[in-house]
Write a structure and sequence with these properties.
The protein is an alpha+beta fold. The chain is built from five helices and 21 strands. The strands form five sheets. An eight-stranded antiparallel sheet has the order 7-4-5-6-21-20-19-14. A four-stranded antiparallel sheet has the order 1-8-9-10. Strands 17-16-15-18 form a four-stranded antiparallel sheet, with no helix packed on it. It is globular, with a radius of gyration of 19 Å.
Amino acid sequence: MKAVNCKALEQLLSATSREQHINGKSQKQVNSCVLVLEDNRLSTTCIVKDGKTSLARFSFVTDGGESGREYIPVPDIERLQGVLKYHSGDVVMTYLDDKDSVRIKSKSKQTTLTGGWKAKAFPNSQVSVKEWNDEAVNRAKQIKGNVYMLKDGSTRSPFIAATVSCETLHDALRCDSINGQKLNRYTFRLKDGEFGVSVGDAFKGQTDISFGDVAGDDFEATFEGGLEHILKHYSGDVKLSFLNFVPEGQGIRLIMTFDNGDWVFQAGVL
C-alpha cells in the first residue's frame, strides 16, 4: 500500500472503532476492520459487534498515486493504534501473506503485527475478519445516499431530513457527558416545526438543543451508538435522515451522511 498520513490513519481507525459509553465505561463497538485503498481514498466499512444496530463507512483522501484497489486486514484496531502512536509522518502498510502479518513502516521505523484475514473479527466470534468485512460490504450496498434499498428492490426514503453543522451537532451530543453522565442516549424530536435533540438525565442535567425550524410531522426517536465520538472527526455539514421502519417492527432508523460521502446507519432504541 502506498504511503498514507499517520495522523489521518489514526483518526480513521478511531472513528471506525465506534467508541461509546455503557454505564459510564468506554467500550469499542468494532474490534477489527479492513483498510481499503481505492484510487486516492482509504476507507473502512464495518458492522458493530452485535451485528444489528449500526453499519458505517469512514474514509479520507490520500495524496496522489497509482490507481487500483488494495486491502489491509486489521484484526485488532487497538493494537494497530498502539503501533501508530510511535510512528509519524507518512506510513506504508503491507500485508505479508506468507507470515499472515502486517508491516507498518515509516521513515526510520518498521513494526510488524501478527494476524490477518483468518483472525477472529472480535473476541469469542465464530467469523473471521474477512467474513465479517464481506458481510459489511454487502449490507452497505443497501445504502444509497440517504435512501435505504430493501431486499425486495423497493426503497425507503426519509420522512424527515435536516442538515446541521458537524460542530453544532457534536457540541450538542457531547452534553451527554455533563456531570459525568455518559448515558449514550440522544433523543431527536420534531415538535411544532422545531427540530432538536435532548441528552442527559434531569438529576445531573438534561440538555435540550434546538437546531431551528424543519418542515414535517412531529416525531421523537432515541438513538445510541456513541455518535458524538464520530462527529469529532468531521467538519462541514452532516445530513440527518430519519426513516420509518415501524411497519417492520424496527422503529425509526437514522442515516447520517457527511460532506465527503461517509455515512452511518444507526438503528433506534425500541
